[in-house]
Write a structure and sequence with these properties.
- This protein is mainly α.
- 71% of the residues lie in helices and 3% in strands.
- It contains seven helices and two strands; from the N terminus they run αβαααβααα.
- It has a two-stranded antiparallel sheet with strand order 1-2.
- α1 (6-66) packs across α2, α1 (6-66) packs antiparallel against α3 and α1 (6-66) crosses α5.
- The termini are far apart.
Length: 214
Protein backbone atom coordinates (compact mmCIF):
# COMPACT_ATOMS: atom_id res chain seq x y z
CA UNK A 1 0.00 0.00 0.00
CA UNK A 2 1.38 3.34 -1.06
CA UNK A 3 1.16 6.52 0.99
CA UNK A 4 0.71 9.39 -1.47
CA UNK A 5 2.02 12.12 0.84
CA UNK A 6 5.01 10.29 2.33
CA UNK A 7 7.40 12.36 0.19
CA UNK A 8 6.39 15.50 2.12
CA UNK A 9 7.46 13.92 5.40
CA UNK A 10 10.67 12.68 3.80
CA UNK A 11 11.57 16.15 2.42
CA UNK A 12 10.75 17.77 5.75
CA UNK A 13 12.97 15.26 7.58
CA UNK A 14 15.88 15.84 5.18
CA UNK A 15 15.55 19.64 5.53
CA UNK A 16 15.49 19.61 9.32
CA UNK A 17 18.41 17.19 9.49
CA UNK A 18 20.45 19.24 7.03
CA UNK A 19 19.70 22.46 8.92
CA UNK A 20 20.75 20.91 12.23
CA UNK A 21 23.97 19.50 10.79
CA UNK A 22 24.79 22.86 9.17
CA UNK A 23 24.27 24.65 12.49
CA UNK A 24 26.59 22.23 14.25
CA UNK A 25 29.26 22.64 11.56
CA UNK A 26 28.99 26.45 11.65
CA UNK A 27 29.16 26.47 15.45
CA UNK A 28 32.32 24.33 15.39
CA UNK A 29 33.93 26.60 12.78
CA UNK A 30 33.05 29.77 14.69
CA UNK A 31 34.30 28.32 17.97
CA UNK A 32 37.60 27.28 16.38
CA UNK A 33 37.99 30.71 14.79
CA UNK A 34 37.32 32.54 18.06
CA UNK A 35 39.67 30.23 19.92
CA UNK A 36 42.46 30.89 17.42
CA UNK A 37 41.76 34.64 17.56
CA UNK A 38 42.05 34.60 21.37
CA UNK A 39 45.28 32.64 21.15
CA UNK A 40 46.69 35.06 18.59
CA UNK A 41 45.68 38.01 20.81
CA UNK A 42 47.40 36.45 23.82
CA UNK A 43 50.50 35.69 21.75
CA UNK A 44 50.54 39.25 20.39
CA UNK A 45 50.19 40.76 23.85
CA UNK A 46 52.92 38.48 25.18
CA UNK A 47 55.17 39.45 22.27
CA UNK A 48 54.52 43.15 22.84
CA UNK A 49 55.22 42.78 26.56
CA UNK A 50 58.42 40.89 25.80
CA UNK A 51 59.46 43.56 23.30
CA UNK A 52 58.71 46.30 25.83
CA UNK A 53 60.77 44.56 28.53
CA UNK A 54 63.68 44.18 26.12
CA UNK A 55 63.39 47.85 25.14
CA UNK A 56 63.43 48.88 28.81
CA UNK A 57 66.59 46.84 29.37
CA UNK A 58 68.26 48.40 26.32
CA UNK A 59 67.30 51.91 27.43
CA UNK A 60 68.57 51.24 30.94
CA UNK A 61 71.89 50.14 29.47
CA UNK A 62 71.95 53.35 27.41
CA UNK A 63 71.33 55.38 30.56
CA UNK A 64 74.10 53.55 32.43
CA UNK A 65 76.52 54.06 29.55
CA UNK A 66 75.68 57.76 29.26
CA UNK A 67 75.78 58.46 33.01
CA UNK A 68 79.55 58.68 33.21
CA UNK A 69 79.73 60.23 36.70
CA UNK A 70 77.38 57.60 38.18
CA UNK A 71 75.02 60.03 39.94
CA UNK A 72 71.90 58.42 38.38
CA UNK A 73 71.15 61.73 36.63
CA UNK A 74 71.63 62.21 32.90
CA UNK A 75 72.60 65.67 31.67
CA UNK A 76 72.41 67.07 28.14
CA UNK A 77 76.19 67.00 27.73
CA UNK A 78 76.43 63.38 28.90
CA UNK A 79 73.71 62.35 26.46
CA UNK A 80 75.38 64.20 23.58
CA UNK A 81 78.68 62.44 24.29
CA UNK A 82 76.95 59.05 24.55
CA UNK A 83 75.34 59.47 21.13
CA UNK A 84 78.82 59.33 19.60
CA UNK A 85 79.23 55.75 20.79
CA UNK A 86 78.22 53.03 18.34
CA UNK A 87 77.03 50.73 21.12
CA UNK A 88 74.63 53.38 22.41
CA UNK A 89 73.27 53.99 18.92
CA UNK A 90 72.74 50.25 18.45
CA UNK A 91 70.86 50.00 21.74
CA UNK A 92 68.64 52.94 20.78
CA UNK A 93 67.98 51.32 17.40
CA UNK A 94 67.06 48.03 19.06
CA UNK A 95 64.67 49.96 21.33
CA UNK A 96 62.99 51.35 18.18
CA UNK A 97 64.20 54.92 18.76
CA UNK A 98 64.67 57.06 15.67
CA UNK A 99 68.42 57.58 15.45
CA UNK A 100 68.12 60.53 13.08
CA UNK A 101 66.23 62.57 15.67
CA UNK A 102 67.98 61.19 18.76
CA UNK A 103 69.98 64.40 19.26
CA UNK A 104 66.82 66.39 19.97
CA UNK A 105 65.31 63.66 22.14
CA UNK A 106 66.78 65.04 25.35
CA UNK A 107 65.14 68.45 24.87
CA UNK A 108 61.82 66.72 24.24
CA UNK A 109 62.04 64.57 27.36
CA UNK A 110 63.25 67.44 29.55
CA UNK A 111 59.85 69.16 29.52
CA UNK A 112 60.48 70.95 32.84
CA UNK A 113 63.76 72.35 31.43
CA UNK A 114 65.72 71.25 34.46
CA UNK A 115 68.69 70.25 32.31
CA UNK A 116 68.77 66.69 33.68
CA UNK A 117 66.81 63.44 33.57
CA UNK A 118 66.60 60.64 36.09
CA UNK A 119 66.36 57.03 35.00
CA UNK A 120 62.55 56.93 35.25
CA UNK A 121 62.03 60.05 33.17
CA UNK A 122 64.49 58.82 30.55
CA UNK A 123 63.09 55.31 30.15
CA UNK A 124 59.39 56.26 30.24
CA UNK A 125 59.95 59.15 27.84
CA UNK A 126 61.89 56.98 25.39
CA UNK A 127 59.20 54.30 25.52
CA UNK A 128 56.60 56.89 24.50
CA UNK A 129 58.88 58.13 21.71
CA UNK A 130 59.37 54.68 20.17
CA UNK A 131 58.48 54.17 16.55
CA UNK A 132 58.58 56.44 13.55
CA UNK A 133 59.03 60.19 13.71
CA UNK A 134 55.27 60.78 14.09
CA UNK A 135 55.35 59.26 17.58
CA UNK A 136 58.19 61.59 18.54
CA UNK A 137 56.27 64.57 17.14
CA UNK A 138 53.25 63.67 19.27
CA UNK A 139 55.49 63.39 22.32
CA UNK A 140 57.01 66.78 21.48
CA UNK A 141 53.58 68.40 21.44
CA UNK A 142 52.66 66.66 24.70
CA UNK A 143 55.84 67.90 26.39
CA UNK A 144 55.15 71.43 25.11
CA UNK A 145 51.72 71.23 26.71
CA UNK A 146 53.30 70.10 29.99
CA UNK A 147 55.76 73.01 29.86
CA UNK A 148 52.95 75.48 29.17
CA UNK A 149 50.81 74.05 31.97
CA UNK A 150 53.70 74.24 34.42
CA UNK A 151 54.50 77.83 33.36
CA UNK A 152 50.86 78.94 33.68
CA UNK A 153 50.57 77.32 37.12
CA UNK A 154 53.66 79.11 38.36
CA UNK A 155 52.56 82.44 36.89
CA UNK A 156 49.08 82.18 38.42
CA UNK A 157 50.56 81.35 41.83
CA UNK A 158 52.98 84.28 41.59
CA UNK A 159 50.14 86.59 40.54
CA UNK A 160 48.00 85.50 43.50
CA UNK A 161 50.87 86.14 45.92
CA UNK A 162 51.55 89.57 44.39
CA UNK A 163 47.89 90.63 44.53
CA UNK A 164 47.58 89.42 48.11
CA UNK A 165 50.62 91.45 49.15
CA UNK A 166 49.34 94.55 47.36
CA UNK A 167 45.90 94.29 48.97
CA UNK A 168 47.43 93.86 52.41
CA UNK A 169 49.67 96.88 51.82
CA UNK A 170 46.67 98.90 50.64
CA UNK A 171 44.71 97.97 53.79
CA UNK A 172 47.59 99.03 56.02
CA UNK A 173 47.91 102.34 54.12
CA UNK A 174 44.19 103.06 54.52
CA UNK A 175 44.28 102.23 58.22
CA UNK A 176 47.29 104.48 58.75
CA UNK A 177 45.57 107.31 56.85
CA UNK A 178 42.38 106.95 58.89
CA UNK A 179 44.27 106.95 62.19
CA UNK A 180 46.29 109.98 61.10
CA UNK A 181 43.25 112.07 60.02
CA UNK A 182 40.80 111.12 62.77
CA UNK A 183 42.59 112.74 65.81
CA UNK A 184 43.08 116.08 64.02
CA UNK A 185 39.52 116.55 62.71
CA UNK A 186 37.67 114.72 65.45
CA UNK A 187 36.00 112.62 62.75
CA UNK A 188 35.49 108.96 63.32
CA UNK A 189 34.69 106.64 60.41
CA UNK A 190 31.09 105.37 60.41
CA UNK A 191 31.34 101.75 59.42
CA UNK A 192 27.61 101.23 59.01
CA UNK A 193 27.08 104.29 56.84
CA UNK A 194 30.13 103.45 54.76
CA UNK A 195 28.99 99.95 54.02
CA UNK A 196 28.66 99.02 50.34
CA UNK A 197 25.35 100.01 48.74
CA UNK A 198 24.59 102.77 51.33
CA UNK A 199 24.08 106.25 49.92
CA UNK A 200 25.30 109.02 52.25
CA UNK A 201 23.75 112.50 52.27
CA UNK A 202 26.00 115.50 51.98
CA UNK A 203 26.00 118.07 54.88
CA UNK A 204 24.64 120.74 52.50
CA UNK A 205 21.62 118.64 51.55
CA UNK A 206 20.90 117.86 55.23
CA UNK A 207 20.97 121.58 56.15
CA UNK A 208 18.51 122.38 53.32
CA UNK A 209 16.08 119.78 54.65
CA UNK A 210 16.38 121.14 58.22
CA UNK A 211 15.78 124.79 57.11
CA UNK A 212 13.40 124.71 54.15
CA UNK A 213 12.81 128.50 54.28
CA UNK A 214 16.45 129.29 53.66
Amino acid sequence: QRLPYIWIVFILFISVTTFAVMNVVIAVIVENTLSKAREQTRDLMAEQEKDRDQAMRDLYEVFQAADTDGDNVLTRDEFAVALKQREVLNKLHQADIDIMSAEGLFDVLDYDQSGSLDVTEFIQGCLRARGIAKAKDVLTVQCDIWRTQDWVTKRVGHLEDTLDKQFRQLERSVEMLVHAVAPESGWEPDVTSASPGTKRESPLRRSELDNPES
